[in-house]
Amino acid sequence: MIAADLANTQVWVATTPIDMRKSFDGLAEVVRSFLGHDPLSGSLFVFRNKGGHLVKVLWWDRDGLAIYYKRLERGEFRWPRSNQVAVEITCDQLLRLLSGLEVSRRAA
Fold first, then answer.
1. Is the Cβ–Cβ distance between 97 and 105 less than 8 Å?
2. Which of 9, 99, 21, 97 lies closest to 61 in space, CA to CA?
3. Residues 52, 74 contacting (CB under 8 angstroms)
4. DSSP bridge partners of 59
5. How far is Cα 72 from Cα 84, in angstroms, rounded to an integer?
6. Is 79 in contact with 13 (CB distance < 8 Å)?
7. Measured between alpha carbons, how far is 65 from 31 in angstroms, rounded to an integer?
8. CB-based contact 45:31 (threshold 8 Å)
9. Burial readout 45-69 (b: 16 or more C-beta within 10 A, e: otherwise)
10. All residues at 6 or more sequence positions from 31 whose CB lies less than 8 Å from its CB, including other chains
11. Residue 47: helix, strand or coil by DSSP?
12. What is the pLDDT along the chain (108 residues), one digit of tens a residue?
């Protein structure tokens, strides 16, 4: 059921690194105040640390906030570049990003 829910879900990637000590409330505040989105919208919000080897994904799954956290043992996540505070990517592109592959920006 979660995979079906995610098929049409917006995915927002923050282009600026964050402090990875942030948890549910801290990440939700970053989504509200810095990215300008509603953390309870059902969208996925993706963050990385300064070193580029840690990723956190914040998601409201209708029952509460969930966090997915991943650490690469070698290398860095290949983050999309932009002058915007966040860029939208597809769920397929998110899977590529989490696999350590390069992600091109979503076509408008």
1. no
2. 9
3. no
4. 44, 66
5. 25
6. yes
7. 12
8. yes
9. bbbbbeeebbbbbbbbeeeeeeeee
10. 37, 38, 39, 45, 58
11. strand
12. 355 556 789 999 999 999 999 999 999 999 999 999 999 999 999 999 999 999 999 999 999 999 999 999 999 999 988 999 999 999 999 999 999 888 875 444
Q: Beta strand 11-14 with 44-48: parallel, antiparallel or unpaired?
A: parallel
- Ordered by start, the domain boundaries in the chain are 2-98
> Can you tell me whether residue 107 is helix, strand or coil?
coil
Q: Which of 14, 29, 33 is nearest to 84 (CA)?
A: 14
CA distance 106 to 25: 28
Nearest alpha-carbon partner for 44 in 92, 108, 82, 102: 92
Look-up of token digits 């070698």: 74
pTM of the model: 0.89
